[in-house]
Amino acid sequence: MKEQKTITLVAFGYIDRSFVENVALAVEIELNTEVTTMEGHLDLSNYYDVKRRQYNGDELLKFVDNSYNSYPGKTMGLFGVDLFIPILTHIFGQAYLNGNTGVVSHFRLNNEFYGLKANKQLLQERFIKVVIHELGHTYGLTHCHVPTCVMRSSTYVEDLDQKSSSFCDNCRESIN
User: Fold this and answer.
1) In 10 A of CB 67, how many CB atoms?
2) Active centre residues (catalytic)
3) 99-132: per-residue pLDDT in tens?
4) For the whole prediction, is pTM greater than 0.85?
């Protein structure tokens, strides 16, 4: 990494503690930096769009950025609600490019959302990929065209399943 900053994962709502700790460990290994976890609190109803029946990712990103910007390094808000931004039907996550903040949600990463049998391991793998992907954006990376790179764009969970949780050589070199 260009900078040896810490990363703080802030879990909002109920997210299993061991799940968050496993995500933190995977991020720590991939980015070779200290990762801490904590619980965050907010009234999610302020971010709910009644017409879309989803939560505004842009506004949640602003909230996390404004409320947790005193922490050193990068901060990722972890959510379990369905996120959108005005130009897309849904998002798995988003972050400020070259910034310090991002948000991710496991809502659409669950097999059950698609009528399939629950798979906690697959859910965790998908979530780790989204968190690392959004952290990549905070380090200045844009979407990559290498099929297995974690920075490849992912519109569908199938896209997530096809890529790894690691940066390709070019992306890794860009942030080292």
Assistant:
1) 16
2) 134
3) 999 999 999 999 999 999 999 999 999 999 999 9
4) yes
